[in-house]
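User: Please predict the structure of the protein below. I'd like the answer in structure-token form so I can feed it into my own downstream comparison script.

Assistant: Understood. Taking the following sequence of 125 residues as input:
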Amino acid sequence: MRMSDEEYFRSCVSKERQLAQLLGCHNVEEFYENAGSLWDNGRQLPKWTRDWQACGPLIAAYELAITYQQTPSDPHGKAIHIGSTVVHISDHPSKDQALMFAIVKATIAHLEHARHCKQRAEHHL
């Protein structure tokens, strides 16, 4: 079931905030007058889930392998798979938006995994 446009918009901004923080932005703010735009120390951050110019470079930077699958038993229809990340296209307004969301979600998973591995290695020293 698709969420409302406002809920979808907020979920995109939330993923962008999470990605920004993983990329080292520590003062991420969203100003009331500029809803949906995140800022870090006076610098506007990319809208990774909503702009191909921002999202596209993540594919190369994190070597994301994108596949599409549709299984007869899947009630959601076609889905985008990037590593262990699965995003159902039917949960998004369009295939393009589903793909951008999947790329950001997969990038977050990649960065969190790398961070976890680094912390584990430091703990064993």
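That's the full token string. Residues 26 and 52 are 24 Å apart (CA to CA).
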